[in-house]
Specification:
With about 210 residues, this protein is of the alpha/beta class. The protein is built from 8 helices and 7 strands; from the N terminus they run βααβαβαβαβββααα. Helix content is about 30%, strand content about 15%.
Length: about 210
């Protein structure tokens, strides 16, 4: 997983509440393999009319470079638990989503895939949304070390994040990688356990019955 330290680049506003996982990645595209990627299918039905043409009112369709940050409304990522919704965002190049609130399962899936989720208050949310609505693709910076979102001329706000989540994102660690940090302690425990309870370990001979 790619570490998240500081991401600077284009941002885009999608000022809508309750963007659910089926909007983020419509179910019909989930037949694709993970290796094929989901970036082109991100928000497909919101970005296109029924005939497949791109909607002119969707800034995400017309940015000269893919955004690193997206700001949306409340309850982002609600609906089903599909992890592919996060894949679609990450595959499109988005490393950070800012919203008033997130669905819990979506937030957990985001962490597992290196996607930073930032919750902010009304005033900060309104200021960043206004900036990106007036300047689609405007430069923004998400700094996880400093825990700030910034843009324009010294504009920005701090954000809170759980210390363990912050550490895992900074190091690019998933749950397995974090567990393997304690590999030596795990091996030592296994050795002590086998010594204390030898009958719990299978015999190397592979026999399953009592010896004669």
């Amino acid at each position: 997983m790619k570490p998240f330290v500081t991401e600077t680049g284009p941002g885009v506003a999608l000022p809508m509440d309750n963007i659910d996982t089926d909007q983020l990645i419509p179910a019909r595209f989930m037949k694709r393999s993970r290796t094929e990627g989901y970036g082109q299918q991100l928000l497909f039905d919101l970005r296109h009319d029924a005939d497949g043409s791109k909607r002119p009112d969707m800034a995400l369709n017309y940015l000269s470079a893919r955004p690193v940050l997206l700001i949306a409304g409340a309850n982002f990522g609600c609906g089903s638990s599909r992890e592919a919704a996060v894949y679609a965002l990450v595959d499109h190049g988005i490393r950070c989503v800012v919203a008033k609130s997130f669905a819990d399962i979506f937030r957990n899936n985001a962490l597992r895939n290196g996607l930073l989720t930032v919750t902010c208050g009304d005033a900060d949310h309104q200021a960043l949304t206004a900036f990106l609505s007036e300047n689609p693709g405007g430069t923004v910076a998400a700094d996880l070390r400093a825990q700030t979102i910034s843009w324009g001329q010294e504009q920005g706000f701090p954000f809170d994040i759980d210390d363990n989540i912050r550490r895992r994102l900074l190091l690019g660690m998933d749950e397995l990688s974090e567990t393997l940090e304690y590999n030596s302690e795990i091996e030592e425990f296994e050795q002590r356990y086998r010594h204390a309870y030898p009958w719990m370990a299978p015999h190397s001979s592979g026999s399953i019955g009592p010896s004669r």
